[in-house]
Amino acid sequence: MYDFKNKIITFLSDEDRFHLRVQHKKERDKRICDRIKAGLLYDEGWSLMQISHVLLLSEDAIRNHINEYKESKKLKPNNSGSVEKLSIEHLSD
């Protein structure tokens, strides 16, 4: 949607905004809350710099969050842990 008066391009529908606000109120994972806030603020016309300053995250992180939401409505981080780097023999030493 393009608002000719304010020259803001929005990417969220009214329904998306509503559901994100409802989810934000119920969500316990602060990382997901930050992703929701980043999307909502960006949709309102905030710059990446402004959002990163308020949420205390890097501009790259904000950019990634917004792009991931635009592409696949992703909110949940992929932090499932890392793969072990030590073999069983190293662990027993």
What report would you give on this structure?
The structure is a single chain. With 93 residues, this protein is mainly alpha-helical. Helix content is 58%, strand content 4%. The chain contains five helices and two strands; from the N terminus they run E-E-H-H-H-H-H. The protein has helices spanning 14-26, 30-43, 48-55, 59-72, 88-92, and strands spanning 2-3, 8-9. A two-stranded antiparallel sheet has the order 1-2. The radius of gyration is 18 Å and the shape is elongated.
Annotation keywords:
about 90 residues, two-stranded antiparallel ribbon, mainly alpha, elongated
How would you concisely characterize the structure shown here?
With 93 residues, this protein is mostly helical.
Question: How are the SSEs placed, and which strands pair?
Answer:
Blueprint: E1 2-3, E2 8-9, H1 14-26, H2 30-43, H3 48-55, H4 59-72, H5 88-92
Antiparallel strand pairs: 1-2
Query: Strand portion, in percent?
Result: under 5%
How many β-strand runs? 2
Low-confidence stretches: none
Using only C-alpha atoms, the radius of gyration works out to: 18 Å
Biggest pleated-sheet summary: 2 strands, antiparallel
> Would you tell me the structural class of the helices and strands?
mainly alpha
Strand order within the widest sheet? 1-2
Assign a percent range to the helix content: 55-70%
Q: Name the average pLDDT.
A: 86
Sketch the topology as an H/E string, one letter per element. Answer: EEHHHHH
Question: What's the overall geometry?
Answer: elongated
Q: What separation lies between the terminal Cα atoms?
A: 61 Å
Q: What kind of assembly state do the chains in view correspond to?
A: single chain
Number of helices: 5
